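Aim 2, interim progress. The first record below pairs a target sequence with its C-alpha cells.
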Amino acid sequence: MFGFYRFACVSTVLKVADTAYNTEEIIRSAKIAASNGAAFVVFPELCITGYTCSDLFHQELLLQNST
C-alpha cells in the first residue's frame, strides 16, 4: 500500500554438515514466512552446512551437497 516490503530474518535449528535436513528446514521456514506476508526471507551465512563445520569444509562430499 505504501511501497513497503516485509522482510523476515530466520535462524533455524540446524544440524552441522546435514545439508539435506538443513535445506528442508530452510524451505519450511521460508514457506512459513511467506505465508505470514514476508516478501523477502534472509537466513544466516552458512546455514546449509552449519557454521561450525571447521575441518569438514575440506571434505568433497560436504562441498558437493552444499551447492
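The second target in this work package is listed in the same format:
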Amino acid sequence: MSLLEIRNVSYTYQSQYQKTEALKNVSLVFEPGTVYAVTGKSGSGKTTLLSLMAGLDLPGSGEVLCEGESTAKMDLQKYRREKAAVIYQSFRLLPLLTAAENIMFPMELNGMNAKDARKAALKLMRRVALSKEYADRYPTMLSGGEQQRVAIARALAMNTKILLADEPTGNLDSANSENIMNILVNLAHEEGYCVIIVTHDSSIAAASDCVIRMNDGEVVS
C-alpha cells in the first residue's frame, strides 16, 4: 500500500464569471523515503494539487488516499495534524514566539507539557543544523535560511511522515537553498519521510528522486 495516492482527481474553480479546470483526472503515487519535485509553469495545477494533498480541500472528483483511506472520510483537521505537514515559502513563523516556541507550538496543541516540548524542540533544531543558541531568538533575528530551518523543525514536530513543501527555497539565496534541500533529502533518505516539493527551481528538481511535470492541470511526464 502506498503512503499517499492521488486517484483520478479533478478540481474546478468556479467564479461568477468563469470556470477553470485546475486539475484534470490526475493520478499519482507517493512512497516513503523519496523526494518528489512537482514542476510546471504558473497555472499548471501544482498549488491546487498541494492543497488537496495537505487536506486544505477535497477533490471535485476522484480521491486523495493516505495509507489507503480517502481524505473525504477523514477529519481534515486531524489529517493535517497527524498525516501531512506543510512547509511554506514565506516560512509562516509566529512573530511573537521564539524559534523554540514556534517548534513547540504544535506539540503543545497536541497536549505535550511545555518542559517536554522545549526539550523535543531543541532536539529538532539539531536535526536541521540549528544550535541551541538560536532557540530564544525571534524570527526577525534570524536569516531567511534559519527561519526556513525553524519551519522545517516545526513541521517535524507534528510527527507526520508526509512533508509537503511549497517553494521552500523561493525566498533564499543559492547557498541556503542547497542547505535546505540537503536537509529535505536527508529526511527522506535517512528517516523515511515522503517529501513532496512544489518548485520552479531546476536545481531542486535535479536533486529530487522523481520529477512530476504538470501542464494545464495534467501530469505530462
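The radius of gyration is 17 Å. This observation will shape the mutagenesis plan for the next reporting period.
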